[in-house]
């Protein structure tokens, strides 16, 4: 039988651990977005990646504020899921493909990132609600809404780029 992990004794512990996961993920994304922007050929897609990097840096700042309020260190955790998603995005960056096909692949990679973030922020916002951390829940929902908007922006870009990719 597996030994119980006593590090996570209650929902507060899980909340902090999930915040650390998102903090790690956001920092990985912050490093990946300029590479994705550089690899993109569609000017709107390129700008979308650059805009999202600025937003990602704001989101990192929000998380750091939450950690400060909690009296916790944001470090010490690596988001392994985001490592894998980013690695797949890096593979797409290196792929030899027609421009529109590569852009379509970059969008797919970016949407995987967004969907992970949407899930993560939805979860921690709910935990914050249950824990009575209303201000933190509101901050987390702001980020959640930004992630949803980014996903929608990528979907709109994909509608055009996917057609171009099919024609190439």
From TrEMBL:
Name the Pfam families on file.
DUF892
What CDD domains is this protein classified in?
YciF (cd07909)
Transmembrane regions: none
Which chain positions lie within coiled-coil regions?
Answer: none
Q: Which InterPro entries match?
A: DUF892_YciF-like, Ferritin-like, Ferritin-like_SF, YciF
Q: What SUPFAM superfamilies does the record tag this protein with?
A: Ferritin-like (SSF47240)
Its recorded name reads Ferritin-like domain-containing protein
Gene source species = Deinococcus hohokamensis
């Amino acid at each position: 039988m597996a030994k119980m992990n006593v590090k996570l004794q209650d929902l507060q512990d899980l909340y902090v651990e999930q915040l650390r996961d998102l903090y790690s993920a956001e920092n990985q994304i912050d490093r990946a977005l300029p590479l994705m922007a550089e690899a993109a050929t569609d000017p709107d897609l390129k700008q979308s990646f650059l805009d999202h990097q600025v937003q990602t840096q704001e989101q990192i700042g929000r998380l750091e504020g939450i950690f400060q309020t909690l009296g916790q260190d944001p470090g010490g955790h690596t988001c392994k899921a985001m490592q894998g998603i980013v690695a797949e995005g890096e593979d797409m960056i290196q792929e030899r493909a027609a421009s529109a096909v590569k852009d379509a692949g970059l969008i797919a990679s970016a949407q995987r990132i967004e969907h992970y973030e949407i899930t993560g922020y939805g979860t921690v916002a709910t935990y914050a609600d249950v824990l009575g951390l209303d201000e933190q829940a509101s901050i987390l929902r702001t980020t959640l809404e930004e992630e949803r908007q980014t996903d929608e922006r990528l979907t709109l870009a994909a509608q055009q780029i996917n057609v171009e990719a099919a024609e190439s």
